[in-house]
Automatic annotation (TrEMBL):
This subunit might be involved in maturation of a crRNA intermediate to its mature form. Coiled coil: none annotated. Belongs to the CRISPR-associated Csm5 family. It comes from the Bacteria. The keyword RNA-binding applies. GO terms for biological process: defense response to virus. One of its GO terms (molecular function) is RNA binding. This is CRISPR system Cms protein Csm5. The keyword RNA-binding applies.
């Protein structure tokens, strides 16, 4: 008679410290055409039920038609606050559901820019619900780090992966992603299933801010048009708590003793290599203000080198870009250049998303700390 397997659960408290603004996006976004407005260093989210009441009570039928026609005309810059002032409605009368700090160019007040919202609790991801960091995002980041460290010590697996790509007549980024997923599952499938990371605690609005961000080409030309938008972020300098559990499948399984500490050692190794690679890429570029970016990246490397098995730095919220960068980091230069030239030359791999804040442009960086419970 087979005895049932005994499972042991190893619980850890996960502390996440934001080293820069961090945003985990969702499908929800707002426009400046009646959903939010800026005043100096504040972003105000408009109560939609309340604004409908204001429109109904204070505007004539012609005013309402003008408002709707302007809002629906996406090609026209629309100064929401000026429109209402001209109709005799003060800013104080506009109903606000919530307000967050704004870090960016205050002259954006009359520009049509999207505001991308951070993922929220609740099925509808309503802007009034609380932000959090999904456990799936944290686990995906850790999974990629574990795969990278394994492949780095098993070059024969990298060679096999590279041979398959070299045999393709044309490199397709979707096929590349699919092959990488197959490789990941073959390496870390079992261990990943034994690792469970819960969604973090809800994050208070006092820890949130709206940042102006931009997509910055590594190789800027005069023909490049500026592309920027706003993002709701967890602001830098805050601590958010979550939980990590490792499921030991049987009492004879000794690997679990080092498994969790090795996660953070692996994260530090992956991130240090990634930062070295990133610094080389940016040093070759003509990105505006690249010296500020380089100084921040080098500071992150110093931080990673000072960490131990219970602390690590990591980049959260840029899954696809970091997946491709991880692939490139493992491959030989010839194949790396072929991928860059054929697949990713117009893709996000040749740009970086940065905050418009001059002194602190990086976003997405966190420090993880683990404590055994």
């Amino acid at each position: 008679m087979n005895m049932p397997r005994k499972e042991l659960y190893h619980h850890y408290q996960l502390e996440i410290e934001t080293l820069s603004p961090v945003s985990i996006g969702c499908k929800s976004q707002l426009t400046s055409r009646g959903e939010y407005f800026l005043t100096g260093n504040k972003t105000h989210f408009i109560d939609q039920d309340g604004i409908s009441e204001i429109l109904y009570q204070n505007l004539t039928e012609e005013d309402k038609k003008e408002y709707l026609a302007t809002v629906l005309n996406q090609g026209v810059d629309f100064n929401f606050t000026d429109f209402f002032k001209n109709k005799g409605i003060s800013l104080e009368q506009i109903p606000i559901s919530r307000s967050l700090s704004f870090i960016g160019d205050a002259t954006l007040v009359n520009k049509n820019r999207l505001l991308k919202l951070h993922i929220k609790s609740g099925a509808d991801e309503n802007q009034n619900n609380s932000a959090y960091f999904p456990g799936s995002s944290l686990k995906g980041m850790i999974r990629t780090a574990m795969v990278y460290v394994h492949l780095k010590s098993h070059p024969e697996l990298v060679s096999k992966f590279a041979d398959k790509i070299n045999n393709w007549s044309q490199i397709d980024k979707y096929e590349l992603s699919k092959e990488w997923k197959v490789l990941e599952d073959s390496i870390i499938g079992k261990e990943a299933n034994q690792l469970r990371i819960a969604d973090t605690q809800n994050i208070s609005d006092t820890d949130m801010a709206v940042y102006q961000v931009r997509r910055e080409p590594l190789y800027f030309t005069e023909s490049d048009s500026e592309l920027d938008w706003l993002e709701e972020c967890v602001d830098k300098g805050h601590k958010i708590f979550g939980a990590l559990t490792y499921v030991q499948k049987n009492t004879k399984e000794l690997a679990c003793i080092n498994f969790v500490p090795n996660i953070l050692l692996g994260l530090n190794e992956w991130m240090t290599d990634m930062l070295d690679f990133e610094i080389l890429e940016i040093e070759k570029s003509n990105m505006p203000k690249k010296e500020i970016v380089l100084a921040q990246l080098k500071s992150l490397i110093e931080s990673s080198l000072q960490n131990n098995e219970y602390a690590a730095i990591a980049r959260l919220g840029s899954g696809k870009t970091f997946m491709f960068n991880t692939i490139l980091l493992l491959l030989e230069k010839g194949l790396r250049e072929r991928i860059l030239m054929t697949v990713l030359k117009t893709d996000s791999i040749k740009t970086r998303i940065l905050c418009s804040h001059e002194k602190a442009p990086l976003k997405g960086w966190i420090k993880l700390n683990l404590r055994k419970l």
